[in-house]
Structures are given as structure tokens and as C-alpha cells.
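Subject: design request, 149 residues
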């Protein structure tokens, strides 16, 4: 049994520390091409916002309410998604997020799952918004409209 205590600043990887403390992506934009929100059993919540240009994810912003591990995971998931074609972002996994952070505590893997879940919901929302309508993009006429009285 080790008597050594965990030193947050010394024992975490540089990548983890960067992702946990980087606030550049923390934003709730007025317009997003895709939005997803997920709350974990622990009570932490991540909302992801996608901006997509010409089929590529140009920016991912998020709002994370929870622990520092949750913010690190949200930032890493966002970082992994940016620059990818939207369909390719579905390949991002919670294991990949945790691995990239290098020192995410084992008892906080659920934070990586939460971040990837919010990303998947944002991707799904984007796909719904950009899917062609069944009528070929044309609004179907409403045949039940009443005439003017």
C-alpha cells in the first residue's frame, strides 16, 4: 500500500490539464447546426453545439455543468470532432476520449461516456436538420385549409 498522495498538478498529464482548464470552447451560441444535451447519473450535464460548413465540423462548443473531469472530456470530444466530416465524427468513442486525456481517473470514465453521448445527440440533431424532406424539399400543401369567410 502506497503512502503517496495524489498531486493533481504533478500527476495529471499535460493534455488532461489543458483540456480541463481550456475555456475557449465554452459557449452557448445563438445558432447551432446541431445541438445535443445529456445528463449523467452523477448529475453532470453536457450540452454540445456543432457548427458545420460544407459537411465538415468547423467548431464545437459546449456548456458543461459538473466536475473538472466532465469539462476535460467535453473539451477532448469537441477537439476530436472539429475538422472531421460530420459522418466521420460518429467514430469517436468514450475509450478514445479517455485515452487521449491519458490520466482520466478510472472512476470517471462515465464523464467520457457523457461527453460522447452529448456529441452523438448533436450529430443526430444535425442529421435531422439536413436530411432531405420526403417531398423533395417542397412543403406539402395543406388540403384541410379553410377558405376565407
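Subject: RE: design request

Done. Sequence follows.
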Amino acid at each position: 500500500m502506497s503512502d503517496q498522495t495524489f498531486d493533481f498538478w504533478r500527476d495529471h498529464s499535460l493534455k488532461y490539464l489543458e483540456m480541463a482548464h481550456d475555456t475557449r470552447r465554452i459557449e452557448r451560441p445563438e445558432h447551432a447546426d446541431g445541438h445535443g444535451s445529456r445528463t449523467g447519473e452523477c448529475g453532470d450535464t453536457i450540452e454540445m453545439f456543432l457548427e458545420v460548413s460544407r459537411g465538415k465540423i468547423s467548431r464545437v462548443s459546449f456548456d458543461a455543468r459538473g466536475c473538472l473531469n466532465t469539462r476535460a472530456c467535453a473539451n477532448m470530444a469537441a477537439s476530436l470532432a472539429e475538422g472531421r466530416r460530420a459522418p466521420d465524427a460518429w467514430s469517436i468513442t468514450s475509450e478514445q476520449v479517455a485515452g487521449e486525456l491519458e490520466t482520466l481517473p478510472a472512476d470517471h470514465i462515465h464523464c467520457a461516456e457523457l461527453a460522447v453521448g452529448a456529441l452523438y445527440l448533436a450529430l443526430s440533431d444535425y442529421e435531422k436538420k439536413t436530411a432531405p424532406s420526403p417531398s423533395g424539399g417542397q412543403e406539402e400543401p395543406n388540403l384541410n385549409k379553410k377558405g376565407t369567410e
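Helices lie at 8-11, 14-21, 68-81, 94-101, 109-130.
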